[in-house]
Amino acid sequence: MDRKITDLTGTFKLHNGIEMPYLGLGTYMPKDSQEVTNSVRFALDYGYRHIDTAAIYRNENDVRMGIEASNVPRQEVFLTSKVWNSDHGYDKTLKAFERSLANLKMDYLDLYLVHWPVVGEYKETWRALEELYEQGRVRAIGVCNFLKHQLEDLIEDAKVIPMVNQMEFHPYLVQQELINFCQLHRIQYQAWSPLMQGKVFELPELEKLAEKYNKNIAQIVLRYDLQKGVITIPKSSKEKRIIANANLFDFELSESDMNFLDAMDRNFRTGPNPDNFEWSVVL
């Protein structure tokens, strides 16, 4: 990739011109609400400018309190939330968006995503996101967990091409063909679960790379993401880890090591496959 990776405030530009910070904080599955608030506040005060949440995480209010407790103005924070499966459809999506804004006590989002491609419904959901985008209620819109055929189907009738596709991404699940498709359509690729829900720390190949670069395994994997041009949002509640996860800007993986990490791909998922995802949790 020819995108510059400079520091914690660095961004990748979306196809509508919006600058999206390439390193952020994920907030999935916290231990409790105070953990979310504290981690968001600390990350922002340390220098992070990108926070990712979702309606199904049930922590939008806690994220808001973390932002308010920080020393960072709202307009400097790139904030993402997502519409859940039970809220698909044009009208229901618009209502879900209003609920998210009410939880966050904000009047806009930086990025709003379709969380999963619910079959037969995601096109109407996308139409609602297009409406919110046209109204200026959200600065960018995108999807999560859309495979190539789902993106092709969505784009066929879309007025606005998704700006982002947030996918499970790590050395065991690269999906290079999907990355190539997104790049072709200027859809920014983003990683969720970049550390394989902790399983990366069990991989001996990564231990060797960590020793080579005098870094920890998480730093190797997160640097790999950035050099692939993939925005990444590792989740952590521990201050030391939040700091360590941002210590990525004083080294660079060689081309051969990037190729080595690409070759680790096993099509291994820690989360559901978008083609047979059947969670029916209702908010």
What does this structure look like?
It is built from ten helices and ten strands. The chain is of the alpha/beta class and 283 residues long. It has a single domain (11-262), classed as TIM Barrel (Alpha-Beta Barrel). The strands form two sheets. An eight-stranded parallel β-sheet has the order 3-4-5-6-7-8-9-10. The N and C termini lie far apart (39 Å). The model has no long low-confidence stretch (mean pLDDT 96).
Strands, helices and their partners?
Elements lengths: L10 E3 L5 E3 L3 E2 L6 H14 L3 E3 L7 H10 L8 E6 L6 H15 L6 E4 L7 H13 L6 E4 L3 H10 L6 E5 L7 H9 L3 E5 L11 H10 L3 H11 L3 E2 L6 H7 L9 H8 L21
Parallel strand pairs: 3-4, 4-5, 5-6, 6-7, 7-8, 8-9, 9-10
Antiparallel strand pairs: 1-2
Helix pairs in contact: 1-2, 3-4, 7-8
Which structural traits does this protein have?
NADP, TIM Barrel, 10 strands, NAD(P)_OxRdtase_dom_sf, two-stranded antiparallel sheet, alpha/beta, about 280 residues
**What is the alpha-carbon Rg in Å?**
18 Å
Reported CATH architecture: Alpha-Beta Barrel
Let me know the largest β-sheet: 8 strands, parallel
Roughly what is the average pLDDT, rounded to an integer? 96
Can you identify the CATH superfamily?
Answer: NADP-dependent oxidoreductase domain
- Which percent band covers the strand fraction? 5-15%
Structural class: alpha/beta
State the domain count: 1
Distance between the termini: 39 Å
Order of helices and strands: EEEHEHEHEHEHEHEHHEHH
DSSP strand count: 10
Q: Which regions have little confidence, pLDDT < 50, spanning 5+ residues?
A: none
Q: What percent of the residues sit in helical stretches (DSSP H or I)?
A: 25-40%
* Number of distinct helices: 10
Shape: globular
InterPro entries: AKR, Aldo/ket_reductase_CS, NAD(P)_OxRdtase_dom_sf, NADP_OxRdtase_dom
Family: Belongs to the aldo/keto reductase family.
Keywords: NADP, Oxidoreductase
Protein name: Aldo/keto reductase
